[in-house]
Recover the amino acids of this structure.
């Protein structure tokens, strides 16, 4: 009946029936996993501490500290990510490139949380999907570097690796890794999580307060007023629900679920916070609900993959345009042999100029293999550049363009664009240029450029992007 034409490609198998494809790369010798088995592997981005006994002391102390997150919470997140993998849900992951000791204060945590709430509301309303909120918070300290050495005026010093390793001033003392910084980071994470938990369930996130989430500096801006009109519409819907007898004081409307994630980079810290769950016997890295492996440390068989393959947290892996379909399938097979939806999230960071060409072969290969994968777009890391005046920045329009490319590719291939991963803050910083009304100009960058690593979208830029995302989700 098809006139002798070759049969069309089979439709991708539903995930539940997926058959594991043949291994693509030769499997390495699999050793027994343990929280410390990564130490037998090649370690990229390893930190050399001058005093080994001091490091061991800190590791012992951290091992005795309370877990920051709990296995039950991690499993709930995994279930939500599983639904999102199958098309029912969208992830909003955002926060600083690097948290810092100096910038830490309750108001900064609150303001980033607040913008994420506004963005999630905008996207739920516009996109009609549950939004899974995950902060790059309460653990996002360690930074991978392209060079371990920084040279200034002929002087070579170790590069700054994040506040849990060393500190930023260009002196030998500041740049020497100090293991005790892991303890300071841990205690800051505990405080941050305490604030986030209180805001999530203690009344702050009650939908009846949605007008109060607008930040002061957004008051007379385009994004602020777009948010305000949306808030009025939601208010009206709530009033209608109450009028017909629906209870609007249930926990779905008065509380929110908020999760944390960071790059799994500093393995002594991650190992020390890894605990065996008493109810299931599984291992969980209790430093965050979700961990991701960065673009620089995702070599198969090396330490970071060895560590994460044994923990039961949902995992992210960053993918750039350098990844091949074989690489991506290998990642999904080794980290998720059971093909469990929600276990693996691939976070693509290609750059606006490459995404439309480089993403389709990867998505197609995964789709046709039947492998479970949640796709997130990180539209910021592939669009970073230095201005003539020396500021590392990003242009709002390029970020938006990469995101639109991400939605276009998934739409064309019939796959689910599962979420976004952003470097952003609730503060009114001037680190990324542009915005819907061209609000940060090149000459403004020096006004409030305070990031410890990469440039972040400010509250207005982040909210503007949420309106753009909501529109794409609807299409
Ligand atoms: C980051 O997320 O801050 C980061 C370093 O990303 P990537 O690994 O994608 O470069
Ligand atoms: Mn970054």
């Amino acid at each position: 009946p098809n006139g002798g034409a070759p049969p069309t490609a089979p439709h991708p198998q539903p995930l539940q029936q997926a058959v594991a494809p043949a291994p693509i790369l030769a499997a390495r010798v699999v050793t027994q996993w343990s929280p410390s088995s990564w130490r037998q592997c090649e370690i990229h981005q390893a930190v050399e501490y001058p005093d080994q006994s001091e490091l061991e002391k800190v590791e012992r102390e951290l091992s005795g500290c309370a877990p920051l997150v709990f296995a039950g919470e991690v499993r709930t997140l995994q279930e939500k990510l599983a639904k999102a993998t199958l098309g029912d849900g969208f992830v909003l992951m955002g926060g600083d490139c690097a948290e810092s000791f100096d910038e830490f204060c309750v108001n900064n945590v609150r303001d980033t949380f607040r913008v994420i709430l506004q963005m999630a509301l905008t996207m739920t309303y516009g996109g009609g999907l549950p939004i899974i909120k995950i902060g790059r918070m309460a653990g996002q300290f360690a930074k991978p570097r392209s060079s371990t050495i920084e040279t200034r005026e002929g002087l070579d010093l170790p590069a700054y690796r994040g506040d849990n390793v060393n500190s930023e001033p260009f002196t030998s003392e500041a740049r020497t890794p100090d293991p005790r910084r892991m303890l300071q980071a841990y205690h800051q994470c505990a405080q941050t999580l305490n604030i986030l938990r209180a805001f999530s369930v203690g009344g702050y996130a009650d939908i009846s307060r949605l007008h109060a989430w607008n930040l002061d500096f957004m008051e007379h801006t385009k994004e602020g007023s777009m948010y305000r009109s949306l808030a009025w519409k939601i208010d009206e819907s709530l009033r209608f629900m109450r009028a017909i007898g629906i209870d609007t004081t249930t926990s779905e409307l008065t509380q929110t679920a908020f999760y944390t994630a960071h790059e799994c980079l500093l393995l002594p810290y991650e190992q020390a916070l890894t605990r065996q769950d008493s109810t299931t016997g599984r291992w969980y890295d209790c430093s965050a609900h979700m961990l991701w492996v960065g673009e620089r440390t995702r070599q198969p068989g090396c330490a970071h993959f060895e560590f994460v393959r044994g923990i039961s947290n949902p995992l992210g892996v960053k993918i750039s345009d350098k990844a091949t379909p074989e690489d991506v399938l290998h990642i999904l097979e080794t980290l998720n042999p059971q093909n469990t939806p929600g276990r693996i999230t691939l976070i693509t960071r290609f750059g606006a100029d490459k995404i439309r060409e480089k993403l389709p072969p990867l998505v197609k290969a995964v789709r046709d293999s039947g492998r479970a994968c949640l796709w997130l777009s990180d539209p910021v890391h592939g669009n970073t550049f230095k201005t003539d005046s020396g500021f590392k920045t990003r242009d709002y329009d390029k970020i938006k363009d990469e995101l639109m490319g991400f939605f276009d590719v998934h739409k064309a291939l019939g796959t689910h664009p599962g979420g976004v991963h952003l470097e952003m803050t609730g503060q009114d910083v001037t680190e990324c240029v542009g915005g819907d009304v061209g609000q940060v100009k090149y000459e403004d960058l020096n006004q409030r450029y305070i990031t410890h690593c990469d440039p972040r979208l400010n509250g207005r830029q982040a909210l503007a992007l949420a309106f753009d995302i909501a529109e794409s989700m609807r299409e």
Notes: The pocket of manganese (II) ion (ligand 2) is lined by residues 97, 381, 423, 453-454 (CB under 6 Å).
